[in-house]
């Protein structure tokens, strides 16, 4: 029974998440790069989070499918791959969430009644914030390149002792707890700012029109993101910390088997946050659905146009071949 559950999650669920993530991230990229969103600073953060998720879906997920689903793990004998894999794992997953935190901060600042605070919500500021956040993330997780190793069990893992406890604690706080709490804080702050502006509508009438359209959609997406990160990320981080704290505790075979299944299940659930954002978040916004409809309509029209053009070329070619075949006979009859 436990083996069946483990196989379902480690093989079929992970493969399904990979396929869903491939499609969803591609559509996210097409939507967030539309001309209408180029001057929207919040969408810049969504696009940056999507790019970080590319590394999770196309690099981390396949390695997990091989190791958890088919017991093929190059990290067991290749130290370089071991270090790069987990460095990418922690960096990409964390940056994906912290970019959404910045998007929440962007909405909070854009809803302020003070001009100098609203100046934060600009595309050029967003690009610089994305750059510095990425740089900080790459430097912060550089310790993984030093302290991850292949242990005596031929497993790629953090060095045992204090560092493993430190690494799991940082993962719990920096990825699972701090981002959703900050998202929630900035979200509530944005709602407070919006209500405050409604009391002074005559002065900020035009500003309120903007807040009631795109900003309302973006805030809905951000609140859904808080829920998604909390549900999918926290169990995996808690499991890692639990495994470290109970590493030297004697366990029977059934408990070990149950722990292994639990590890695979919560690890699979944690990838849900990075693979399915398009289906749960992007499609929740009306303006993003409209842009997706335009993209699909344009693609269908182009496909039809290319099909008609190809048919015309084929008919022209067929008629030309027929004429070339009939010309020699007509010449013989004339002779």
UniProtKB/TrEMBL annotation:
Cellular compartment(s): Membrane
TM regions (residue ranges): 12-33, 45-66, 86-105, 125-150, 170-192, 217-238, 261-281
Entry annotated with the keyword Transmembrane helix: yes
Annotated InterPro entries: GPCR-Ligand_Int, GPCR_Rhodpsn_7TM
Keywords of this entry: Membrane, Transmembrane, Transmembrane helix
GO cellular component, one term: membrane
Gene3D superfamilies documented for this protein: Rhodopsin 7-helix transmembrane proteins
Residue ranges of every copy of the G-protein coupled receptors family 1 profile domain listed in the record: 24-281
PROSITE patterns xref list: G_PROTEIN_RECEP_F1_2
Subcellular location, principal: membrane
Transmembrane helix keyword on record: yes
Name of this protein: G-protein coupled receptors family 1 profile domain-containing protein
